[in-house]
């Protein structure tokens, strides 16, 4: 199985209704394609973890890269995994605008991730965010 974490810039601001529609669509298509994961939205930026069969994850990444709602799609982390981190979630979600200071690995911007520099310094923060999200929503 494959796990990919990517970031992207929303092509426009998403309202709560826009996010709800996106989540409904994502959850439906993820269930059909045996994908699980999480989605974080903040200040017009997405951070998403997708996991599942290699071919399904790569196909979904192709769809996301072609989606005009996303720009500047950048894969931040790609791992082969033996088991899912989010086996029961077609798509967990968090809108972090209101509570960002409470989140491990919190960043005011994604500027360092979006630059052409290596993201190796960002990997611990990404892994901390994933662990925090899982623990928070499994409780």
From TrEMBL:
Coiled-coil boundaries: none
One Pfam family hit: BLUF
Taxonomy, superkingdom: Bacteria
Annotated BLUF domain residues: 1-92
Listed InterPro entries: Acylphosphatase-like_dom_sf, BLUF_domain
Listed name of the protein: BLUF domain-containing protein
Native source species: Amnibacterium soli
Taxonomy of the source species: Bacteria, Bacillati, Actinomycetota, Actinomycetes, Micrococcales
